[in-house]
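pasting for the record
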Amino acid sequence: MAAGTYRENLLITRPVTLAGQGSVTLVPPATLARNLCTDDPDAMVDDQPSPVGMCILGTLALPDPGEGDLPTVVTPVADVHLKNLTVAGFVEGIEAVGTRGMTVESVTGRANADAALLSFYGDGTVLSHVTMTGTAGFAAASLRNSRDVRVSASRFTGNSGIGLALLDTRTGTLSGNVMTDNAVGLMVADTGDPHPTGDIRVTGNDVSDNTRYFPGDGDAPSMSGAGVTLLGTHEVTVSGNRIVGNAPSSPAAFGGFGVGVLDASAMTGGAAPTGNRVTGNRINGSPVSVNYDGSGSDNTIRGNQTN
Protein backbone atom coordinates (compact mmCIF):
# COMPACT_ATOMS: atom_id res chain seq x y z
CA MET A 1 0.00 0.00 0.00
CA ALA A 2 1.29 3.43 -0.92
CA ALA A 3 1.74 6.02 1.81
CA GLY A 4 -1.42 7.85 2.82
CA THR A 5 -4.58 7.79 4.94
CA TYR A 6 -7.21 5.32 3.74
CA ARG A 7 -10.83 5.78 4.85
CA GLU A 8 -12.00 2.21 4.45
CA ASN A 9 -12.40 -1.11 6.19
CA LEU A 10 -11.06 -4.37 4.79
CA LEU A 11 -12.20 -7.99 4.60
CA ILE A 12 -9.43 -10.59 4.17
CA THR A 13 -10.34 -14.22 3.46
CA ARG A 14 -7.28 -15.55 1.59
CA PRO A 15 -3.48 -15.51 1.96
CA VAL A 16 -2.14 -12.01 1.46
CA THR A 17 0.76 -9.75 2.39
CA LEU A 18 -0.41 -6.23 3.15
CA ALA A 19 2.61 -3.98 3.68
CA GLY A 20 2.70 -0.22 3.91
CA GLN A 21 5.21 1.72 1.88
CA GLY A 22 5.87 4.74 4.07
CA SER A 23 3.22 6.02 6.49
CA VAL A 24 -0.05 4.14 5.91
CA THR A 25 -3.05 4.71 8.19
CA LEU A 26 -6.45 3.03 8.00
CA VAL A 27 -9.33 5.03 9.56
CA PRO A 28 -13.12 4.50 9.55
CA PRO A 29 -14.94 5.32 6.30
CA ALA A 30 -18.14 7.31 6.09
CA THR A 31 -19.95 4.11 5.08
CA LEU A 32 -18.74 0.72 6.28
CA ALA A 33 -18.38 -2.26 3.97
CA ARG A 34 -20.37 -4.81 5.98
CA ASN A 35 -19.09 -8.29 6.83
CA LEU A 36 -19.30 -10.85 9.65
CA CYS A 37 -17.09 -8.70 11.88
CA THR A 38 -19.04 -5.48 11.46
CA ASP A 39 -22.33 -7.34 11.86
CA ASP A 40 -21.40 -9.31 14.98
CA PRO A 41 -24.55 -9.06 17.16
CA ASP A 42 -22.40 -8.70 20.30
CA ALA A 43 -20.70 -5.60 18.87
CA MET A 44 -23.60 -3.87 17.10
CA VAL A 45 -25.45 -1.03 18.81
CA ASP A 46 -29.08 -0.38 17.83
CA ASP A 47 -28.67 -2.83 14.92
CA GLN A 48 -25.98 -0.66 13.39
CA PRO A 49 -22.73 -2.20 12.07
CA SER A 50 -19.68 -1.87 14.29
CA PRO A 51 -16.55 -0.28 12.77
CA VAL A 52 -13.85 -2.96 12.41
CA GLY A 53 -10.76 -1.89 10.48
CA MET A 54 -9.54 -5.27 9.23
CA CYS A 55 -11.71 -8.39 9.35
CA ILE A 56 -9.64 -11.56 8.75
CA LEU A 57 -11.73 -14.70 8.43
CA GLY A 58 -11.16 -18.36 7.76
CA THR A 59 -14.03 -20.50 6.53
CA LEU A 60 -16.48 -20.59 9.41
CA ALA A 61 -19.61 -22.46 10.42
CA LEU A 62 -21.89 -20.19 12.41
CA PRO A 63 -23.46 -21.61 15.58
CA ASP A 64 -27.08 -22.64 15.74
CA PRO A 65 -29.34 -20.38 17.82
CA GLY A 66 -28.85 -21.09 21.49
CA GLU A 67 -25.53 -22.89 20.95
CA GLY A 68 -23.24 -20.00 21.93
CA ASP A 69 -21.92 -17.08 19.96
CA LEU A 70 -18.58 -18.38 18.65
CA PRO A 71 -18.29 -19.98 15.20
CA THR A 72 -16.52 -23.21 14.35
CA VAL A 73 -13.48 -22.92 12.08
CA VAL A 74 -13.91 -25.21 9.07
CA THR A 75 -10.72 -24.13 7.24
CA PRO A 76 -8.33 -21.52 8.62
CA VAL A 77 -7.04 -18.77 6.37
CA ALA A 78 -3.26 -19.20 6.14
CA ASP A 79 -0.37 -16.80 5.72
CA VAL A 80 -1.92 -13.40 6.25
CA HIS A 81 0.93 -10.94 6.82
CA LEU A 82 0.38 -7.35 7.96
CA LYS A 83 3.34 -4.98 8.08
CA ASN A 84 4.07 -1.25 8.46
CA LEU A 85 0.48 -0.13 9.00
CA THR A 86 -1.53 1.93 11.48
CA VAL A 87 -5.17 1.13 12.27
CA ALA A 88 -6.80 3.97 14.19
CA GLY A 89 -10.16 5.08 15.50
CA PHE A 90 -12.22 1.92 14.97
CA VAL A 91 -14.20 0.01 17.56
CA GLU A 92 -11.91 -2.94 16.81
CA GLY A 93 -8.79 -2.25 14.80
CA ILE A 94 -8.09 -5.81 13.65
CA GLU A 95 -10.36 -8.81 14.21
CA ALA A 96 -9.20 -12.26 13.11
CA VAL A 97 -11.12 -15.53 13.41
CA GLY A 98 -9.57 -18.80 12.24
CA THR A 99 -6.02 -18.06 11.07
CA ARG A 100 -2.87 -20.09 10.57
CA GLY A 101 0.56 -18.44 10.46
CA MET A 102 -0.71 -14.87 10.74
CA THR A 103 2.05 -12.32 11.30
CA VAL A 104 1.55 -8.76 12.48
CA GLU A 105 4.81 -6.80 12.26
CA SER A 106 5.48 -3.11 12.86
CA VAL A 107 1.76 -2.44 13.09
CA THR A 108 0.28 0.28 15.31
CA GLY A 109 -3.22 0.12 16.77
CA ARG A 110 -4.13 3.57 18.07
CA ALA A 111 -7.27 4.89 19.81
CA ASN A 112 -9.52 1.94 18.98
CA ALA A 113 -12.50 1.76 21.33
CA ASP A 114 -12.75 -1.93 22.29
CA ALA A 115 -9.55 -3.55 21.01
CA ALA A 116 -6.64 -2.84 18.73
CA LEU A 117 -6.32 -6.57 17.98
CA LEU A 118 -8.81 -9.33 18.72
CA SER A 119 -7.93 -12.83 17.51
CA PHE A 120 -9.85 -16.10 17.94
CA TYR A 121 -8.63 -19.57 16.93
CA GLY A 122 -5.20 -18.52 15.71
CA ASP A 123 -2.54 -21.16 15.11
CA GLY A 124 1.02 -19.83 14.99
CA THR A 125 0.19 -16.13 15.40
CA VAL A 126 3.25 -13.85 15.55
CA LEU A 127 3.25 -10.27 16.84
CA SER A 128 6.54 -8.42 16.40
CA HIS A 129 7.38 -4.75 16.94
CA VAL A 130 3.71 -3.83 17.28
CA THR A 131 2.41 -0.86 19.27
CA MET A 132 -1.05 -0.96 20.84
CA THR A 133 -2.11 2.24 22.60
CA GLY A 134 -5.14 4.29 23.55
CA THR A 135 -7.64 1.40 23.76
CA ALA A 136 -10.63 2.02 26.02
CA GLY A 137 -11.94 -1.56 26.27
CA PHE A 138 -11.06 -4.75 28.16
CA ALA A 139 -7.71 -5.35 26.44
CA ALA A 140 -5.65 -3.63 23.75
CA ALA A 141 -4.62 -6.98 22.27
CA SER A 142 -6.53 -10.16 23.06
CA LEU A 143 -5.60 -13.59 21.69
CA ARG A 144 -8.19 -16.25 22.48
CA ASN A 145 -8.56 -19.99 21.91
CA SER A 146 -5.18 -19.98 20.20
CA ARG A 147 -1.93 -21.93 20.21
CA ASP A 148 1.75 -21.38 19.42
CA VAL A 149 1.65 -17.63 20.02
CA ARG A 150 4.83 -15.55 19.80
CA VAL A 151 4.90 -11.92 20.90
CA SER A 152 8.20 -10.04 20.88
CA ALA A 153 9.68 -6.52 20.92
CA SER A 154 6.21 -4.96 21.17
CA ARG A 155 4.64 -2.17 23.24
CA PHE A 156 1.26 -2.23 24.96
CA THR A 157 1.01 1.15 26.63
CA GLY A 158 -1.55 3.74 27.66
CA ASN A 159 -4.61 1.48 27.53
CA SER A 160 -7.58 1.67 29.90
CA GLY A 161 -7.78 -2.08 30.56
CA ILE A 162 -5.24 -4.87 29.98
CA GLY A 163 -2.26 -4.34 27.71
CA LEU A 164 -2.06 -7.95 26.44
CA ALA A 165 -4.49 -10.77 27.26
CA LEU A 166 -4.09 -14.44 26.36
CA LEU A 167 -7.27 -16.39 27.06
CA ASP A 168 -7.63 -20.15 26.62
CA THR A 169 -4.32 -20.17 24.76
CA ARG A 170 -1.81 -23.01 24.67
CA THR A 171 1.93 -22.82 24.02
CA GLY A 172 3.83 -19.68 23.23
CA THR A 173 6.53 -17.20 24.15
CA LEU A 174 6.35 -13.56 25.21
CA SER A 175 9.75 -11.88 25.22
CA GLY A 176 11.24 -8.41 25.13
CA ASN A 177 7.93 -6.57 25.35
CA VAL A 178 6.96 -3.39 27.22
CA MET A 179 3.60 -3.30 29.01
CA THR A 180 3.18 -0.06 30.91
CA ASP A 181 0.57 2.57 31.81
CA ASN A 182 -2.38 0.17 31.60
CA ALA A 183 -4.71 -1.05 34.36
CA VAL A 184 -3.14 -4.54 34.04
CA GLY A 185 0.01 -5.26 32.07
CA LEU A 186 -0.44 -8.93 31.11
CA MET A 187 -3.17 -11.46 31.81
CA VAL A 188 -2.99 -15.16 30.93
CA ALA A 189 -6.29 -16.76 31.85
CA ASP A 190 -8.29 -19.96 31.62
CA THR A 191 -12.04 -19.56 31.14
CA GLY A 192 -13.24 -23.16 31.24
CA ASP A 193 -12.37 -24.07 27.66
CA PRO A 194 -11.79 -27.85 27.44
CA HIS A 195 -8.08 -27.34 26.76
CA PRO A 196 -5.84 -26.05 29.59
CA THR A 197 -4.33 -22.60 29.27
CA GLY A 198 -0.57 -22.77 29.54
CA ASP A 199 2.82 -24.00 28.35
CA ILE A 200 3.79 -20.36 27.85
CA ARG A 201 7.12 -18.65 28.62
CA VAL A 202 7.11 -15.01 29.74
CA THR A 203 10.72 -13.82 29.80
CA GLY A 204 12.65 -10.55 29.58
CA ASN A 205 9.64 -8.22 29.55
CA ASP A 206 9.18 -4.82 31.22
CA VAL A 207 5.79 -4.83 32.96
CA SER A 208 5.83 -1.61 34.94
CA ASP A 209 3.75 1.29 36.22
CA ASN A 210 0.39 -0.20 35.33
CA THR A 211 -1.73 2.07 37.53
CA ARG A 212 -4.75 3.02 35.44
CA TYR A 213 -8.28 2.28 36.58
CA PHE A 214 -10.66 0.16 34.48
CA PRO A 215 -14.24 0.44 35.78
CA GLY A 216 -15.41 -2.98 34.60
CA ASP A 217 -17.70 -3.75 31.70
CA GLY A 218 -20.18 -6.40 32.79
CA ASP A 219 -17.91 -9.28 31.74
CA ALA A 220 -14.85 -8.14 33.69
CA PRO A 221 -14.51 -6.59 37.16
CA SER A 222 -12.96 -3.23 37.92
CA MET A 223 -9.17 -3.47 37.67
CA SER A 224 -6.20 -1.33 38.65
CA GLY A 225 -2.55 -1.85 39.46
CA ALA A 226 -1.58 -5.39 38.38
CA GLY A 227 1.54 -6.44 36.52
CA VAL A 228 1.33 -10.10 35.44
CA THR A 229 -1.75 -12.21 36.19
CA LEU A 230 -1.81 -16.00 35.84
CA LEU A 231 -5.43 -17.00 36.26
CA GLY A 232 -6.00 -20.76 36.29
CA THR A 233 -2.95 -21.40 34.09
CA HIS A 234 -0.95 -24.60 33.64
CA GLU A 235 2.86 -24.64 33.39
CA VAL A 236 3.45 -20.98 32.64
CA THR A 237 6.98 -19.73 33.34
CA VAL A 238 7.50 -16.09 34.34
CA SER A 239 11.23 -15.42 34.66
CA GLY A 240 13.75 -12.63 34.19
CA ASN A 241 11.16 -9.85 33.93
CA ARG A 242 11.12 -6.34 35.37
CA ILE A 243 7.76 -5.99 37.14
CA VAL A 244 7.81 -2.75 39.13
CA GLY A 245 5.50 0.07 40.19
CA ASN A 246 2.21 -1.72 39.56
CA ALA A 247 -0.16 -0.13 42.09
CA PRO A 248 -3.84 0.85 42.04
CA SER A 249 -4.75 4.46 41.35
CA SER A 250 -8.32 3.86 42.67
CA PRO A 251 -9.95 1.09 44.70
CA ALA A 252 -10.74 -1.81 42.38
CA ALA A 253 -12.04 -5.36 42.67
CA PHE A 254 -8.91 -6.74 40.99
CA GLY A 255 -5.27 -5.67 41.23
CA GLY A 256 -2.74 -4.42 43.73
CA PHE A 257 0.05 -6.90 42.96
CA GLY A 258 3.13 -7.37 40.83
CA VAL A 259 2.41 -11.02 39.94
CA GLY A 260 -0.79 -12.91 40.70
CA VAL A 261 -1.14 -16.71 40.62
CA LEU A 262 -4.83 -17.28 41.18
CA ASP A 263 -7.69 -19.75 40.93
CA ALA A 264 -9.88 -18.94 37.92
CA SER A 265 -13.07 -20.68 39.05
CA ALA A 266 -14.79 -17.70 40.68
CA MET A 267 -13.89 -15.14 38.03
CA THR A 268 -14.08 -17.07 34.76
CA GLY A 269 -15.19 -20.62 35.55
CA GLY A 270 -11.69 -21.82 34.70
CA ALA A 271 -9.18 -24.04 36.46
CA ALA A 272 -6.90 -23.80 39.47
CA PRO A 273 -3.26 -22.91 38.72
CA THR A 274 -0.88 -25.87 38.40
CA GLY A 275 2.81 -26.21 37.63
CA ASN A 276 3.52 -22.51 37.18
CA ARG A 277 6.96 -21.03 37.88
CA VAL A 278 7.62 -17.42 38.95
CA THR A 279 11.39 -17.17 39.36
CA GLY A 280 14.21 -14.68 38.97
CA ASN A 281 12.10 -11.58 38.44
CA ARG A 282 12.46 -8.09 39.86
CA ILE A 283 9.10 -7.43 41.51
CA ASN A 284 8.65 -4.33 43.63
CA GLY A 285 6.66 -1.14 44.08
CA SER A 286 3.31 -2.94 44.43
CA PRO A 287 1.15 -3.33 47.57
CA VAL A 288 1.76 -7.10 47.23
CA SER A 289 4.73 -8.36 45.24
CA VAL A 290 3.37 -11.86 44.54
CA ASN A 291 -0.26 -12.68 45.23
CA TYR A 292 -0.62 -16.46 45.31
CA ASP A 293 -3.92 -17.64 46.75
CA GLY A 294 -2.59 -21.12 47.59
CA SER A 295 -4.87 -22.93 45.17
CA GLY A 296 -3.83 -25.61 42.70
CA SER A 297 -0.59 -27.53 42.98
CA ASP A 298 3.11 -27.59 42.07
CA ASN A 299 3.38 -23.81 41.70
CA THR A 300 6.92 -22.53 42.33
CA ILE A 301 7.59 -18.96 43.47
CA ARG A 302 11.18 -18.31 44.45
CA GLY A 303 14.34 -16.36 43.71
CA ASN A 304 12.57 -13.10 42.95
CA GLN A 305 13.85 -9.68 44.01
CA THR A 306 10.87 -8.25 45.89
CA ASN A 307 9.98 -5.32 48.18
